[in-house]
Structures are given as structure tokens and as C-alpha cells.
Amino acid sequence: LPPPEEALLARLARADRPAPRGGFPGRPSPAAALAEARRALAAGELAEALHGFTALTRLRPEDPWAWHGRGDALQLLGEPAGALDAYARAAALQPDEALHRAGLANALEALGREAAAREAWERALALDPEVAWVRAGRSPPTPRGG
User: Fold this and answer.
1) Is 134 helix (H, G, I), strand (E, B) or coil?
2) Is-above-0.85 flag for pTM?
3) Tens-of-pLDDT digits for all 146 residues of the chain?
4) CA 9 to CA 99: how far, in whole Å?
């Protein structure tokens, strides 16, 4: 028999008892793993970021930000087709998030699908006009209230 999948083992472990405060030793919480993958992406450590986001999509396929991060890493690695798939998964999970639509637009544009890219940008801007910074290639605005 093949060994049980890691996700099943994690689910069984949680069913037996709650995780200790701070998570299990040697295994970061999903939030910490997402933060580490984002750190790697920001530092330009693209292979490490892709690995982290991919692992998260396997452990938490319902997490749109894991998919979005995977799309960002693939886009920066010059893999717009893979990025498009990842952004589409993020948008399907969280349809009203403008950043997922902006990611879709960038990937579509990189693939030469101008009409679809334009439609994705219009949807992103309709959801949040401030998302225009993504297209301009600038840094994100300072978060409100923080």
C-alpha cells in the first residue's frame, strides 16, 4: 500500500487533539508558510517561492491566496500559461477580489490574448479602481487603516 497523503495525516492529527500553541514542531502553520512564501517572492527567490506556494495549494486547495502567490511566482518565472491557471483558480475561489482579476489580466496579456486581458482588467477595476497600480508596475498603495 502507498503511504497515506500528508493532508490526510494532518487531518487525522487535528481530529485527535488540537495543535499545540505555535503549531507542530518543525512544521509551520499555513499562515506562517504563506508568509514565508511571500517573503521569498519579495526577495526574488522565485524557485523557493514557487515551491512554497505549490505546497500550500496541495495542503490547502481552498486558499485563494496560495493560488494567487503561485500565479505571481510563475508569472515572474516567465510561465504565463501556468500563472493563468493559478490566477483562474484564485479567482474561482474568491471571485470578487480585484487582485486575482489583475493577475489574470497580466497573464492573458503575456500570452497575447489582448481582448481577454482587457476584459479581465475592466473587471478588476470595476471591483476596485485602486488596483490600477498593478498595471502600472508600481508598488501597492499603503493599506488603509494600517
Assistant:
1) helix
2) no
3) 445 455 544 544 444 344 434 444 456 788 888 999 999 999 999 999 999 999 999 999 999 999 999 999 999 999 999 999 999 999 999 999 999 999 999 999 999 999 999 999 999 999 999 887 766 554 444 444 43
4) 33
